[in-house]
TrEMBL record:
Keywords: Membrane, Transmembrane, Transmembrane helix. One of its GO terms (molecular function) is xenobiotic transmembrane transporter activity. GO terms for cellular component: plasma membrane. It comes from the Bacteria. InterPro entries: Acrflvin-R. This is Efflux RND transporter permease subunit. It comes from Borrelia miyamotoi. The chain crosses the membrane at residues 49-72, 79-99, 105-129, 141-169, 175-193.
Length: 194
């Protein structure tokens, strides 16, 4: 029996794929009376867990959009928030790629938390745009959107930067790698929302 363990910081799924590829080559070279079998592969659990977390994040986002539609009663506002969420997630994945942060359970949890914060900020902006529309002073939708967004820009940026400032010192302190990955996911998501 041979046990293979990855180095600290190595990606379990990548290591597992490399070992499985090597095992296929070794099996071809072994005599017929010797067998090579995989007993335990932790990467399968990791793959399933990542799928479960990403599925839960997707379901949570869809539920949030349904709730937004229910309360705002506006398909356009819901679509705008949905597009903002999608763009922010895409930008976050790009930032994670360039920062060499792997996609794992913890970074996905941080991303899910940040999506909630994005939804909060989006609702505040949409509500302010509606206030401009209801006043009747501004008959043009585009002007209402510009003024409503400009008015909320500073409070939203202040709230987001405050959240970043709260999490930032934890990156400097010695914290566990799990917390570090969550924090990096949150910080990159929040930065992409700005």
């Amino acid at each position: 029996m041979v046990s293979i363990k990855k180095q600290s910081g190595a990606n379990s799924v990548v290591v597992s794929d490399a070992v499985n590829a090597e095992m296929k080559g070794i099996k071809l070279e072994l005599p017929k009376d010797i067998s090579l079998e995989l007993i335990n592969d932790t990467s399968e659990f990791i793959k399933k867990a990542i799928f479960s977390v990403s599925d839960a994040a997707y379901s949570g986002t869809m539920l949030a959009l349904c709730i937004i539609f229910f309360f705002l009663r506006s398909l356009i506002a819901t679509i705008i928030i949905g597009i903002a969420i999608a763009l922010a997630i895409i930008l976050t994945f790009c930032l994670m790629y360039f920062a060499d942060i792997s996609l794992n359970i913890m970074s996905l949890l941080g991303l899910a938390l940040s999506v909630g914060m994005l939804v909060d900020c989006s609702i505040v902006v949409i509500d302010n745009i509606y206030k401009y529309r209801q006043r009747g002073e501004l008959n043009k939708l585009i002007l209402s959107a510009i003024l409503g967004t400009q008015e909320m820009m500073l409070p939203i940026m202040s709230a987001t930067l405050t959240s970043i400032c709260v999490f930032l010192p934890m990156l400097i302190l010695r914290v566990s790698w799990i917390l570090l990955v969550i924090l990096l996911g949150i910080l990159l998501s929040l930065l992409s929302y700005l």
